[in-house]
DUF2442 domain-containing protein (Phyllobacterium phragmitis), 134 residues
Amino acid sequence: MAELTDTAIDTALERGRAARANEPRAAAARYDRVSGRVIVDLENGCTFAFPPRLAQGLQDGSDDQLAAVEILGQGYGLHWEALDVDLSLPGLMAGIFGTKAWMARRAGQARSEAKAAAARANGAKGGRPRKTAS
């Protein structure tokens, strides 16, 4: 195990100060039943909102469960006790609404006119080719 030096401690403290100054932090969070969105007021005066159906673990939450949102730590996360869900605020703002596997499954569920047209065209050609043994 490496020895902890004064330089290492000073470097870590400086990284923490930079993170507090530059990364988004929540000042308040709530669920708005009318708009159906989780709304996060940031310490810098901005507001971030997202529909809970996009976030892993929130998609089936009731209005009361979603309204019980808490701010974690120094404002870097959101927590829903009844749903056992914790989400990173920087991650949410970067469009990361769950684990990689969960996000990949959600991407495959996307519906668009282009995707529907491609599926129809593929079906008209006889569908997906069968796999053959190599």
